[in-house]
Write the structure tokens for this entry.
Amino acid sequence: MKRQILTTEDGSHTLYVPEMDEHYHSIHGARQESMHVFIEAGLNAHPGKELTIFEVGFGTGLNAFLTALESKHQQRKITYHTIEKFPLREEEWKSLNPEKDTDNEDSQLFTHLHNCQWEKINHIDDKFQLQKIEGDLTNFNFQALPPFDLVYFDAFAPDKQPQLWSPKIFAAIFNHMANDGILVTYSAKGTVRRIMQSAGFQMERIPGPPGKREMLRGRKP
Ligand SMILES: C[S@@+](CC[C@H](N)C(=O)[O-])C[C@H]1O[C@@H](n2cnc3c(N)ncnc32)[C@H](O)[C@@H]1O
């Protein structure tokens, strides 16, 4: 897959896929969007002190990186499982800046998240564990993983990759979530809301990140 690096409006990088005409993040601010959608509306909305997180699309590692930073700041123990069909090449992730003013320790963390082995559970520090799985969400067997407290659904947009936003996938994720689990996604589409509702989620439309009016959050009752 061909990808180009772009700088978004908050100074953080994202990737652009010309063949799909699709970005990995909002061009209004990649870091800002990840913070809003996944950290503030997801991680900070869950009361658990110890969490199992599942992410759709490891990609640039930005969500994993911000979550690892938060686990340290908030002293919360997090096990983070993430699936990725098209891992970045080393020269690609090495050219990314995860945030504008990344200090040295943070940039070592970013490197560590990318350098650690795929498939195994990596102990990144005493609070954060990471399992990167190279695989395809459309035929993934969730049974190998523990129940999810929190899901970051960060696939490419529903009109670009409709097969990932299917009733079957949302039902499989719902069935694999713990009670009171939360799923967050940047999409605010009515079709996505209805598919998630049919899977069993209690749905909310909440304010979106800069440049986007709304986003969706679902809870497993
Ligand atoms: C919108 S990007 C977001 C990536 C990441 N969360 C980030 O912050 O960079 C969507 C990601 O889903 C991955 N992806 C696409 N199709 C997939 C599939 N069938 N299974 C798993 N991952 C997939 C893409 O390669 C890409 O990394």
In short: Residues 24, 57-60, 62-63, 83-86, 136-138, 154-156, 164 surround S-adenosylmethionine (CB under 6 Å). DSSP finds six helices and eleven strands in the chain. The chain has one domain: 29-219.
